[in-house]
Design a protein that fits this description.
2 copies of one chain form a homodimer.
Chain A (H helix, E strand, L loop, with lengths): L6 H12 L3 H7 L5 H10 L2 H8 L4 H10 L2 H9 L3 H9 L3 H9 L3 H10 L3 H10 L7 H4 L6 E3 L4 H12 L7 E5 L5 E6 H5 L7 H4 L8 E2 L4 H10 L4 E5 L5 E6 H19 L12 H28 L1 H6 L2 H4 L1 H24 L8 H30 L2 H31 L10 H22 L3
Chain lengths: 450, 450
């Protein structure tokens, strides 16, 4: 039932584009779902994509445009004239249109806007351009359906019919008072089954209305929509006047991007990058962390150099350096990950730091006991019981320290409004390496009485 | 406008519960949004929560129950009789009811079901229990609205009014033929604005209908809903008969859980755990990875032991062990993370492995060149130019190898249907440690001519 893009189809399509075989294209491509068409255009050259794009119906064009991969869309738009871009914008939802314009230069934006025929739509878009893209204002669209408190159902239906032309998906009708302040919501289902003369004021739900402010952070919008199970949320200004709405599908993108960002931060990548980006852009996002890790490694080298006499006398001490650093790193990352996720869920207003720390320390004690008993046997086999003791006592100490650091660092970062996911990255690993080496060699020198 | 839970409020509430001050509770608590009430109950003792819960209206009870944290809900349900649980289930959507029952023993399920008064609802729930919870069948609900092709709009409205009583949120009406096979969809908006005698067959949209099969994996459902921007998706059986629907809010949970799981896998935690779990459960989820890392560290110790003569003669070689292993680990994790994410996006049918590898190798070359020139200076400062050469050549080699492993391993795991996020965890780090040490000491022995 669903379309599956194959290499063969793509090759065939390419040859048909070259032959300008519109009959074939019409039959095999233009009837597909817009998301599938976008997926196909993503794989074509810009000229090929443009050829197909302008065969599509206007409505479908808008949908396809928004589904294209960002890089493909940027390239595509760059090859259009201001007039052509303006034509595309007319068919888009205001939030999508603003997103597209937002990527252009101010000069180009003015040019495009001047070519738009629908003044009201142009005004909406220009208004949306004022909001930071990471806020509710940046996410919202101007297309929504509203009803006034004193309308009867039949008048409401007439008004809605008029309004609904611009609104693709209707989930909820927002009810406003005479000052355009949001006072409640009304489900389409409720309206559908009410008698024509009933007034909205007797139908609408005015209790526990969840709305967001234009300046709210987009991550907070996502949290609110998740918490309250909303499919769309009304956006109000500082005076509680209704100015837009945000739909869950836009917020799903925010949720995914946030998860991607956390995953990348934890993997030591400093910007949101995709595998399609240029070598230089990928390098730039990755090298800062590597430099930090390298400086950490240099500090580690300095620690070991300070204990050079230990290595000269007992070379076997060097054998377990990677084990100690690896374990410190792994335990630290585990501890941070748990804290980062519980912070991300926002369910930690009441979990005191001491409570978290003591639990984490307890887990570390259990893990430390199990692992250090195993490693005693291994190190004993490598050299002798002194090395066994050194490695197992150090490992135990390092695990406990790493767990404590791993827990504290994200909490501290979060306190200073820095993304705690940073902690699960090379940061905590590097710190634990250095501390771990220091603990290991200090215990080694003590037990070997060097 | 939105409720913010504070410590003070919670303390006050506790004392009011003790005093059984229903007036205060009514005024300050029972009117809140169900999600806020659930948040409050999460923080109370089971007895306190139960007291509040049974003051709530029946409809609100169901909503609150589904919003409780899993552990709190399990504890709460365990303290109810089968009859009481059955009463709660009557007010829940079928998918939520099935989720709750699914956690109970078979015996308890039978008991609860036998207490349910609504036979049809009970049947729906029992049916849903048959599906694996990670499939579309496990996600779907039996509450949806359907219309037959040959109905006129007015009959459709009458039928919908009847059906809609059970359906909390209506987004789309599913259109079926006489055999109950899904043939299309109809938006409520469209129905609302049609004339009474128009037939559904002339209104509905039958092209490009996206549906999922009961056996589809829940992650695939999430991908489909994202790709096609759906707020709800119909679920069909093997004969294309309509059996349920899945709404986006349930899928958002799947998306979040998937992201959490990836993040935890990458952090070396083997089950989905939460910070509220018991020490033992957290330990159990974490220790397998630590043991793998420790065995890796032991292999690393063996590698170094084989080069013991090198360390005896040039103790400074030991200084840079942590740097080499840390850099290998970090580069490997970065490379894996990018591959894992591009695999998760599912946009890689056409990206050939060779293409990915060569790009990753190119990035590694650039990073390697920059970093190994810096480290040459540092190692030179520590000892002499020979050590400088050893460390910088090894670092360069290790970075390139780590990038290649980091790219290949998730691709291989994915090929064998193993979650590629495993690769970004301790797995790739450990492997890179061992390979890195081997490269480092081999080059060291060569250049120092030991």
């Amino acid at each position: 039932m669903r379309f599956e893009l194959s290499k063969d189809f793509l090759e065939l399509l390419r040859s048909k584009i070259e032959e300008q075989d519109l009959l074939w294209i019409n039959e095999n491509l233009l009837g597909l779902h817009f998301a599938d068409i976008a997926e196909i255009l993503d794989k074509l050259s810009n000229d090929e994509a443009k050829y197909i794009y302008f065969q599509l119906e206007e409505e479908v064009q808008a949908d396809v445009l928004m589904e294209l991969e960002e890089e493909v869309r940027d390239r595509f738009l760059a090859s259009l004239s201001s007039k052509e871009i303006a034509d595309q914008l007319e068919n888009l939802d205001s939030d999508d249109a603003a997103d597209i314009l937002g990527d252009l230069s101010d000069e180009k934006i003015q040019e495009v806007i001047s070519h738009m025929e629908d003044d009201e739509a142009a005004e909406d878009i220009v208004d949306l351009l004022n909001y930071d893209e990471d806020t509710a204002g940046g996410l919202m669209q101007k297309e929504f359906i509203q009803a006034k408190l004193d309308w009867p159902v039949d008048r409401c239906l007439v008004e809605l019919r008029r309004q609904a032309e611009d609104v693709e998906k209707v989930y909820t009708i927002y009810v406003v008072d005479d000052l355009n302040k949001l006072v409640g919501v009304l489900s389409l289902k409720r309206l559908l089954f009410a008698s024509p003369k009933t007034k909205i004021i007797d139908l609408y739900q005015g209790k526990n209305i969840i709305s967001v402010k234009t300046s709210d952070d987009s991550e907070d919008v996502a949290k609110v929509m998740e918490k309250y199970d909303l499919v769309s949320v009304p956006v109000v200004d500082l005076q509680n006047k209704l100015v837009g709405r945000i739909t869950l599908d836009d917020v799903v993108d925010v949720i995914k991007e946030e998860a991607d960002k956390d995953f990348q931060l934890a993997s030591g990548i400093s910007e949101r990058i995709e595998s399609t980006f240029s070598v230089w852009r990928i390098t730039r996002a990755r090298i800062p962390w590597l430099i930090i890790a390298m400086l950490g490694g240099t500090l580690g080298a300095q620690v070991i150099a300070n204990f050079e006499v230990g290595i000269t006398q007992i070379p076997a001490l060097a054998f377990f350096i990677p084990l100690i650093t690896a374990m410190g790193g792994n335990v630290g990352v585990q501890s941070s990950a748990i804290v980062v996720q519980s912070l991300a869920k926002g369910n930690d207003q009441f979990g005191s730091i001491m409570q978290k720390l003591s639990k984490e320390a307890l887990v570390a004690l259990v893990n430390g006991l199990i692992l250090s008993s195993i490693i005693f046997g291994i190190a004993y086999y490598f050299e002798n019981s002194t090395l066994g003791l050194v490695v197992s006592i150090s490992l135990f100490t390092v695990i406990v320290f790493a767990a404590i650091f791993g827990t504290l660092i994200p909490l501290v970062l979060n306190h200073y409004k820095i993304d705690p996911a940073l902690a699960t990255g090379p940061f905590v690993t590097t710190l634990n390496d250095i501390v771990g080496l220091f603990i290991y060699f200090t215990i080694g020198m003590l037990l070997y009485q060097i």
